[in-house]
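Run folding on both entries below.
>entry_1
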Amino acid sequence: MSFSEALSLGDREFATLVGADARRDLLFAIAHELKAIPKLVVTTATIRFAVPKPEQCDACVVDAMPEVAYRDTIERLKYFTHVHTGLGGSGGYVTTRTDTIGRHYSPSNEGLTLALGRNQSLPFVIAVGESWAAAAYELAMSVPSRTRLLVPVVEAATEPTAVADIADVVGKASEKRPEARIVPYLLVANDADAPGAESTARTLRDAIAERVGPKLAPDRVVIGTAAAPTTTLDA
């Protein structure tokens, strides 16, 4: 099963992943599938994020200076299939495998991310927000305003008592971004563990549905590893 099928990705998408630490690996796994279609993919982060490894993306954008023209930066993205932008750190130029574009992009500044979301030539923007360890308000605010697909990433081993807390955080994020549809991603260690995770997936789906209401309730939960989806549990 592909990520496009599992997450019902359209021809153009602005998705944000929040939650479990493996969301970072999931970010690049989704991007690699899309770039093979081929589609131009931009991955970004609204949190402190390590410089991607050479195999994770074609180029990095580091851009925080207010005077940098976003249009110039975006124009240069067309030369790559997959670009990552939005690195944590103290700034300065970063030389990547193929190019250096701009300067350090501050995760607290949505300017470039918003510009990416508005740009019709960039069909896929995938962002990483906060982890479940963050305060609910911080997690909600880490979801860019252009988000149209919110993906809460949850470990299958999560205790049932924690699911209600996760659903509450997802609800707060949804209040900030009510136009985003919600598709939870339940992480398993391997494909063989997927059938056993269906009960947790149902509990997660129902808890989020109760919190956000029928209009925004998830129509599916994706079950899979950080490398690939295995199955979906439909509503």
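>entry_2
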Amino acid sequence: MYMSDEVPTGWVKPVAKPTPASLKARIAELRTELAAAEAQLREMEEGARLEALVKIRNLMRAFELTLADLGLTPTPKRRGRPRKAAA
């Protein structure tokens, strides 16, 4: 049923339970690793975003498209509520 490699045979060295201090240290280690990984992820996402923008601009230039052709409106220069339209 079991292969001989999977089942430990003979004496197995006991493993000590982790102490609260060792758990806190491990959590601190993992948090620093997480912060580094998140920073690397942000860099990768920013690079991918910039690369996508460059591709979009190149395609727009190649096909001579404008923002209006894509159905996009320019962002308003004035903040707040829009002015009333003349009736």
